[in-house]
Automatic annotation (TrEMBL):
<protein>
    <submittedName>
        <fullName>Cupin domain-containing protein</fullName>
    </submittedName>
</protein>
<dbReference type="GO" id="GO:0046872">
    <property type="term" value="F:metal ion binding"/>
</dbReference>
<dbReference type="Pfam" id="PF07883">
    <property type="entry name" value="Cupin_2"/>
</dbReference>
<keyword id="KW-0479">Metal-binding</keyword>
<feature type="domain" description="Cupin type-2">
    <location>
        <begin position="37"/>
        <end position="109"/>
    </location>
</feature>
<dbReference type="InterPro" id="IPR011051">
    <property type="entry name" value="RmlC_Cupin_sf"/>
</dbReference>
<dbReference type="InterPro" id="IPR051610">
    <property type="entry name" value="GPI/OXD"/>
</dbReference>
<dbReference type="InterPro" id="IPR014710">
    <property type="entry name" value="RmlC-like_jellyroll"/>
</dbReference>
<dbReference type="InterPro" id="IPR013096">
    <property type="entry name" value="Cupin_2"/>
</dbReference>
């Protein structure tokens, strides 16, 4: 058991160009909670592709910018200071639109932590 104080800027980022992805849970060696700080430039999606989790619940808190979340049925627009929650089994893809005025900054939380994601395949795809 322990306590931690950490700044996401103290964590080395990893991911593709256009995004700044910092895994707080990896830095603290957390086993049951996925906790990530993500900054995405206009036109970039959050690191995960269009997906759903079998058991993980996810929450995205928008620190700066506007998060767009695509789902099979609609698109959600999540403003600064708001929280978007995804229950297990629901496909989604978060992104910062190409025409955004600036970067998107999000704190993403998922529990239980794990790699149970499945990629979305629409009925029209082969």
């Amino acid at each position: 058991m322990g306590y931690h104080t950490i700044s996401p800027t103290d964590i080395a980022p990893f991911d593709a160009p256009g995004r700044d992805f910092r895994s707080i849970s990896r830095a603290l060696d957390l086993e049951h909670l996925g906790l990530n700080h993500i900054t995405a430039a206009p036109g970039e999606q959050l690191p995960m592709h269009y997906h759903a989790h079998e058991t993980q619940e996810e929450a995205f808190y928008v620190i700066e910018g506007t998060l767009h979340v695509e789902t099979p049925d609609s698109e959600y627009i999540v403003e600064t200071g708001s929280l978007f929650v995804v229950e297990p089994g629901n496909y989604h893809r978060g992104y910062n639109p190409k025409d955004a005025a600036g970067p998107l900054e999000v704190l993403a939380v998922g529990a239980p932590s794990g790699k149970d994601a499945t990629v979305y395949e629409s009925e029209g795809e082969e």
